Amino acid sequence: MTTPRHARGGASAGHGDDDGRRVADDATPGDDATPSDDPVELAASARRQRKSAGRLRALVRHSIRLTWAADRRAFVITTVLQLFGAAVIAAQVLIVKSVLDAILVVGDGGGVGPVVLPVVLLAAVTALVAVSTAIQANQQRLLSELVLRSTWQQLLDVAGAVGLRAFESPDFYDRLQRVQTNALSRPYQLTQGLIGLAGGLAGCIGLSVAIVSFEPALLPILLLAGVPLFVSSRRESRLEFDFAVAQTPRLRLRQYLGLVQTGRDEAKEVRAYGLTGALRERFDAVYTAYADDLRTHLRRRTRLAVAGNLASAAFLAATLLALVWLVGQGRVTLAEAGAAIVAIRLLATQVGTLFKGAQQIFESGLFLDDLAGFVAMRPEAEQAEAGAPAPPSFRTLRADGLTFTYPGSTAPALDDVSIRLNAGEIVALVGENGSGKTTLAKLLATLYEPDGGAIHWDDVDVSTYSRPGLRRSVAVVFQDFVRYHLSARENIGLGDADRMDDIDAIAAAARRAGVAEVVHDLPHGWDTALSKMFKGGRDLSLGQWQRVALARAFFRDAPFVILDEPSASLDPRAEHALFQSLRDLLGGRTVLFISHRFSTVRTADRIYVLDGGRVTEQGSHDQLMAQDGHYAELFRLQAAAYLAPETSR
Ligand SMILES: Nc1ncnc2c1ncn2[C@@H]1O[C@H](COP(=O)(O)OP(=O)(O)OP(=O)(O)O)[C@@H](O)[C@H]1O
């Protein structure tokens, strides 16, 4: 992503950001904390990472931080229960030995008395394990959900902090998509992996101690049994990475094709053009191809898992044979041998849990890197928009020699543009499609930083002010304003979220924008959702929506108002009323408006004409008509279109 002009690098602003930094720091050389979006490079980078020895350590550290930040209590409870479970497993082995000892005594003609206590103990411990497992499963589910929430919070923090320029970058958008997609499944996998790793490790240690207490020689043979599992699980995780990376583009296409067929906005056109069948076929084809690849992939994974487990089983068999030999030698008692068999079986399960946990963490590694790289963008983005407290308004706003090229474009959208707005003036921007009007409005609203030139509020370069602070003094109605699928109250109240409860002011803004009656007729008044997606909701006409967008800007009560084609969907009466009363409606505020309708433009104090990203003419309507240039030509063209039928009568 292109670094904004005023980016100064920067200190971390919160723990989430620290996390992002640290994973990058923890990673060993060659690790790539901000992976490329090229699938081949991603796969190669993932492979490099998996080979590094510190990789698992770095991932575990990051996983713990993520989980800890999500919910300490649930994390502690789950970990303690897992460790408790592991300790109990080791105790179970020792109790089994006591039971066997007691049974052998009974077999030798002794009374049943000595058997009672170990059997009761074994039953109690078994019940304890069952209860602890049930509690743990619930805690684990809760923890996974909380990690998911925390991941979403971090993701939304970044999405909200980055400048608009980021949304022009395919790299940013790809990463946002990937983090979003993964955020749904990876935190769960990560939590499971972490807990499995901790529990498996503790279980292995406990059982190893128990086995060593019977016969130390058994342990090395048993440890060897873990090697094939280790090798096969590493290969499996590598396969999983490659599969995930290779399938990402297909997955995105599938998601998109699903969206087009289920989206409300698309529904009209899909039906009008009869696209249901064609789109469905494409969706099915993409899904089938994925399913075929998944089958092949799973076959490979199964082959690996079978090979690993068979080899491991062979080592286990060798251990059991060794045990029989040790019993024959008299080095191990029958009770110890029986308990050792139980321990060996349990150890195999624990080793499996351990490797599965490590594998899950490895498989989440790509997601963690993506997330870390993504989260690390936040402090830089915030730093780029930081500055001195912004003044509440200006007497004069001056844009001097603004130049701006959209990321990825070669031709500038604005080229050496200078304009001026005095407080209280109504200034219009006109020009043909693509001449740069909206781009200039976005720069004046401080949504983009210019590549060259500067914007001054009372002779101070606005890049020295906090941009969010400046934006509090600006109200914009965009050409493609947002129709929030929220209540009527929120649709207007979001103009100034801090005053959302001020229903009187919201109602006043609605009256000024001519939408109060529409709200009055809604079934639940202000609480009616302006969307058919929710129960009791209502949709509005495009013109009514435009009035809602205007009401939102009026409610903001900002000294500088930008209106980008505010009347495009208004009927002629409403448009006339809007521009006739613009001065009253906006009472002394500075207004910049963009319009293609010259009948509305002529009311402006000053008009700037843009052509090919440059200001070519400026002045009042009368001055521009007198100049007889581009403006006059466009004005006459439009006027003639209206007058032609009448004159031809
Ligand atoms: N997000 C973008 N990325 C790349 N180029 C863009 C982007 N938005 C606009 N442009 C280009 O910048 C130039 C100016 O666009 P702008 O939207 O400012 O024009 P406009 O005068 O507002 O046009 P219209 O009257 O059609 O709304 C055009 O060449 C356009 O293609």
TrEMBL record:
It is a multi-pass membrane protein. GO terms for molecular function: ABC-type oligopeptide transporter activity; ATP binding; ATP hydrolysis activity. It comes from the Bacteria. Its main location: membrane. The keyword Nucleotide-binding applies. It comes from Jiangella anatolica. Keywords: ATP-binding, Cell inner membrane, Cell membrane, Membrane, Nucleotide-binding, Transmembrane, Transmembrane helix, Transport. Residues 15-25 have a biased composition (Basic and acidic residues). Pfam families: ABC_tran. Belongs to the ABC transporter superfamily. Siderophore-Fe(3+) uptake transporter (SIUT) (TC 3.A.1.21) family. The chain crosses the membrane at residues 74-95, 115-135, 194-211, 217-233, 304-327. PROSITE patterns: ABC_TM1F, ABC_TRANSPORTER_1, ABC_TRANSPORTER_2. Residues 1-39 are annotated as: Disordered. SUPFAM superfamilies: ABC transporter transmembrane region, P-loop containing nucleoside triphosphate hydrolases. It is found in: Cell inner membrane. GO terms for cellular component: plasma membrane. This is ABC transporter ATP-binding protein. Residues 397-637 form the ABC transporter domain. Residues 76-355 form the ABC transmembrane type-1 domain.
